[in-house]
């Protein structure tokens, strides 16, 4: 393990709030959990510099201005800007200008936190113009962090998940306000003809769009490739047959569009981690 490093000028106003939380072993293994959360009014000399600290950090600017140095890039932060970083990487952030930097922060870790970070980081480090409802989500975490009861850790997990979900939905590549007509038409075609052979070449012949743009735009707006959409639909229908009919595995494979039963079984097991027959026995009513 690399040596951790932290330096800081913790110059903030007396009304600033910070809450440090020590989770139970159960929460550390199975939940998202708070390490520290708070609302601080950072003065002009405030800064924090650290590296190799096992924590993820989300900072939301309510008012004022700050700057962040992360992964060799400098980001300027204004009202409603938010950053989400991995504190194992070097970071330096500070107040900018002559006014206070009013910010909310959350240090957290736990189950799936790395995956949330990687998904956000694929679109960058900063979320510009985040919704001011972030304040309410942070306040829920601050309030719950000071409670000690049988529900508090589960609620903290929920509130961190809510915050992460809002951040990811607001990120540029995931915030889809419309789907182009041609992508809708291709999606509808796949849903209607899922039993048939469908490839990018076939779709490019049927619709006025190149394979390259089709592949890129379909993934952007639908969230998966045409192949994976078709596969998902086939498996959904197969599961319905397995759970609510007595037809054979061979017949199911044929009905949902697989030429060979062995191919269907292999694909199904790769996706569900059990064979179709085992799945049927598990869900048999």
Structural overview:
This is Helix-turn-helix domain-containing protein. Residues 184-282 form the HTH araC/xylS-type domain. The protein is an alpha+beta fold and 285 residues long. The protein folds into 2 domains: 5-170, Regulatory protein AraC (Jelly Rolls, Sandwich), CATH 2.60.120.280; 181-283, Homeodomain-like (Arc Repressor Mutant, subunit A), CATH 1.10.10. Helices cover 44% and strands 23% of the residues. It has helices spanning 25-30, 113-121, 134-145, 152-170, 181-192, 200-206, 211-222, 226-244, 249-256, 261-272, 276-283; strands spanning 5-9, 17-20, 32-42, 47-51, 56-63, 66-70, 73-77, 82-86, 91-95, 101-110, 126-127. The strands form 2 sheets. The chain has a 6-stranded antiparallel sheet. Strands 1-4-9-6-7 form a 5-stranded antiparallel sheet, with no helix packed on it. A hairpin with a 2-residue loop joins strand 6 (66-70) and strand 7. Helix 3 packs antiparallel against helix 4. The protein is elongated and about 70 Å long.
Give a nutshell description of this structure.
The protein is built from 11 helices and 11 strands.
Largest sheet, strands/sense/barrel: 6 strands, antiparallel
Distance between the termini: 51 Å
**CATH class label of the largest domain:** Mainly Beta
**Superfamily at the CATH H level of the largest domain?**
Regulatory protein AraC
Order of helices and strands: EEHEEEEEEEEHEHHHHHHHHH
Helix and strand arrangement:
Layout: E1 5-9, E2 17-20, H1 25-30, E3 32-42, E4 47-51, E5 56-63, E6 66-70, E7 73-77, E8 82-86, E9 91-95, E10 101-110, H2 113-121, E11 126-127, H3 134-145, H4 152-170, H5 181-192, H6 200-206, H7 211-222, H8 226-244, H9 249-256, H10 261-272, H11 276-283
Antiparallel strand pairs: 1-4, 2-3, 3-10, 4-9, 5-8, 5-10, 6-7, 6-9, 8-11
């Amino acid at each position: 393990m690399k040596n951790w490093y932290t330096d800081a000028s913790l110059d903030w106003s007396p009304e600033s709030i910070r809450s440090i939380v020590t989770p139970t072993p159960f929460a550390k293994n199975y939940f998202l959990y708070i390490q520290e959360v708070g609302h601080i009014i950072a003065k002009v000399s405030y800064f924090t510099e650290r590296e190799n600290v096992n924590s993820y950090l989300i900072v939301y600017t309510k008012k004022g201005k700050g700057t962040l140095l992360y992964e060799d890039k400098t980001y300027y932060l204004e009202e409603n800007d938010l950053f989400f970083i991995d504190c194992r990487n070097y970071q330096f952030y500070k107040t900018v200008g002559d006014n206070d930097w009013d910010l909310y922060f959350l240090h957290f870790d736990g189950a799936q936190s790395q995956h949330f970070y990687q998904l956000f980081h694929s679109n960058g480090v900063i979320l510009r113009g985040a919704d001011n409802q972030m304040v309410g989500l942070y306040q829920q975490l601050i309030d719950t962090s000071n409670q000690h009861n049988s529900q508090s850790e589960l609620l903290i997990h929920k509130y961190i998940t809510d915050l992460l979900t809002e951040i990811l939905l607001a990120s540029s590549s995931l915030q889809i306000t419309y789907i182009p007509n041609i992508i809708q038409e291709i999606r509808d075609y796949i849903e209607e003809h899922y039993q048939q052979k469908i490839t990018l070449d076939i779709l490019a012949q049927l619709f006025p769009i190149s394979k390259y743009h089709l592949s890129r735009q379909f993934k952007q707006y639908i969230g998966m490739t045409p192949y994976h959409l078709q596969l998902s639909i086939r498996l959904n229908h197969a599961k319905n047959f397995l759970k609510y009919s007595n037809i054979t595995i061979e017949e199911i494979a044929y009905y949902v569009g697989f030429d060979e039963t062995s191919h269907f079984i292999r694909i199904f097991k790769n996706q569900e981690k059990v064979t179709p027959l085992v799945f049927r026995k598990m869900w048999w009513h």
